[in-house]
TrEMBL record:
Source organism of this protein record: Mitsuokella jalaludinii
UniProt protein name: 3-phosphoshikimate 1-carboxyvinyltransferase
CDD domains: EPSP_synthase
Top-level taxonomy: Bacteria, Bacillati, Bacillota, Negativicutes, Selenomonadales
Pathway, per record: Metabolic intermediate biosynthesis; chorismate biosynthesis; chorismate from D-erythrose 4-phosphate and phosphoenolpyruvate: step 6/7
Keyword Amino-acid biosynthesis included in the entry's annotation: yes
UniProt gene name: aroA1
Keyword Metal-binding tagged: no
PROSITE patterns, sorted: EPSP_SYNTHASE_1 (PS00104)
Catalytic center residues: 321
Domain (Enolpyruvate transferase) ranges: 11-429
Short name of any one Pfam family annotated for the protein: EPSP_synthase
A molecular function (GO) term: 3-phosphoshikimate 1-carboxyvinyltransferase activity
Recorded GO CC terms: cytoplasm
């Protein structure tokens, strides 16, 4: 792809139907857990994007069979819970925090060595949040900067890991999942307590593999696992974090009417629907169903007059990846939007609070102010066409594209990072604008 992408101003409403690509979080877990089973699992609607392909490559390197039948359908088969084997070379998690953090949880209890690397962004991200609790369970994990950064090496622990009660300072599904996955191999039960409940795809998918977790408020407990029974198939619902771009575009571009097909609406992920509704969006759920233990629906969105809102720490885990695009909705709303409790955005693929502030202000001067853990967005600020930068962060690139389409157009530098989670994004936008 060229090194800049021109986004045209939408001259009329966006109309049409969009099949939402598979959920990134669930796609990762489907391959990881299937690789710990001993019978083949047929995975459909898998997200064929860089992050999930990193996970597939990791599991293959560790001895699982991973055979693609098409881009979105594959069969994964492992050799059981204790059947992974030492990889012959370094494992590359690419840009994917989920791959690295969950894999650390799976590999910490294994009787072999693993060394991880990743891309430049992943090298900057904090891994101590997983390494510290796993080490407290007895794991031996070493990394740069006092065991907090890539490259990371895991060596066999002395005997079994020990179950523990861990009170996590952050609400993070990656931290929770890593600890629960190690807990499967521990000598006693393991409990993770979070400040607020994060996405529960790990718990739900473990249930499909016959592993029960117990939930009590924001605490989740797992017992040592004796048997692990893979289901014969897993159907991945569409990713609400990808649908988010169309929910916002459909709301703010006048005259729009979009139908988003097959969107996962797990309640731990639907914070964006609550916030957009509070802003006055016209969103309706149709054809609500449950597939593979996960709620899904088709979502209809029509243009609406939005107004500013405020939200904070409590809802944050339910919309953590949607803040950049919600900032676009806020920019086209009437009045200010105040976001607090969003400090986690500073340690995503890039510092998203800083990136949103700097890049949105290029397209709408004076529109955004950042605080230590949040943003104030002045709705109704005059928007112009400008060149802006993705920071090689997929969610920044897509949010800037929606801002450009809803505003006066934009030129995005380093646009190709959308392949991390949504390879068809620009083609879909162009189709809706045609
Ligand atoms: C994810 C959890 C979230 C989210 C990420 C995917 C997951 O990260 O931002 O895109 O699949 O568990 P944190 O758990 O670090 O908040």
């Amino acid at each position: 792809m060229e090194n800049t992408k021109t986004i045209a101003k939408a001259r009329q409403g966006l109309r049409g139907t969009i099949e939402i690509p598979g959920d990134k979080s669930i796609s990762h877990r489907s391959v990881m857990f299937s690789a710990l089973g001993s019978t083949p699992v047929h995975i459909t609607n898998f997200l064929h994007a860089q992050d999930c392909l990193s996970t597939a490559a990791c599991m293959k390197a560790l001895g699982a069979s991973v055979e693609f039948e098409s881009e979105t359908s594959l069969v994964v088969c492992g050799h059981g819970l204790h059947g992974l084997r030492e990889a012959s070379t370094i494992i590359d998690a690419g840009n994917s925090g989920t791959t690295l953090r969950l894999m650390m949880g799976i590999l910490a209890p294994q009787p072999f060595l693993t060394t991880f690397t990743g891309d430049a962004s992943l090298h900057k991200r904090p891994m101590g949040r997983v390494i510290k609790p796993l080490s407290a369970m007895g794991a031996k994990i070493y990394g740069r900067e006092k065991n907090t950064k890539l490259p990371i090496t895991i060596v066999p622990a002395e005997g079994k890991l020990h179950g523990m009660l861990y009170e996590s300072p952050v609400a993070s599904a990656q931290v929770k999942s890593a600890i629960l996955l190690s807990g499967m191999y521990a000598d006693s039960p393991t409990t993770v307590v979070e400040p607020f409940t994060s996405r529960d795809h790990t718990e739900r998918m473990l249930e499909a593999f016959g592993v029960e977790t117990k939930k009590d408020g924001t605490a989740v407990t797992i017992e040592p696992v004796e048997s692990f029974h893979a289901p014969s198939s897993i159907e991945v619902p569409g990713d609400i974090s990808s649908a988010a771009y169309w929910l916002v575009a459909g709301s703010v571009v006048p005259g729009s009417h979009l139908l988003l097909k097959n969107v996962g609406v797990n309640p731990t992920r639907t914070g964006i629907l609550d916030v957009l509704e509070a802003m006055g969006a016209k969103i309706t759920l149709e054809n609500e169903r449950v597939s593979g233990g996960e709620a899904a629906a088709d979502i209809r969105v029509e243009a609406a007059k939005l107004h500013g809102t405020s939200f904070g720490a409590e809802i944050m885990p339910r919309l953590i990846d949607e803040i950049p695009v919600l900032a676009v909705a806020a920019l086209f709303a009437e009045g200010d939007t105040v976001i607090t409790g969003a400090g986690e955005l500073r340690v995503k693929e890039t510092d998203r609070l800083q990136a949103v502030t700097d890049e949105f202000n290029k397209l709408a001067p004076g529109a955004v102010e950042a605080s230590k853990d949040g943003l104030v967005i002045h709705g109704g600020t005059k928007v112009r066409a400008a060149t802006c930068f993705s920071y090689d962060d997929h969610r920044m690139a897509m949010s800037l594209a929606i801002l450009g389409a809803a505003g006066e157009g934009a030129e995005i530098e380093r646009p190709e990072c959308v392949t991390i989670s949504y390879p068809a994004f620009y083609d879909t936008l162009a189709r809706l604008q045609a």
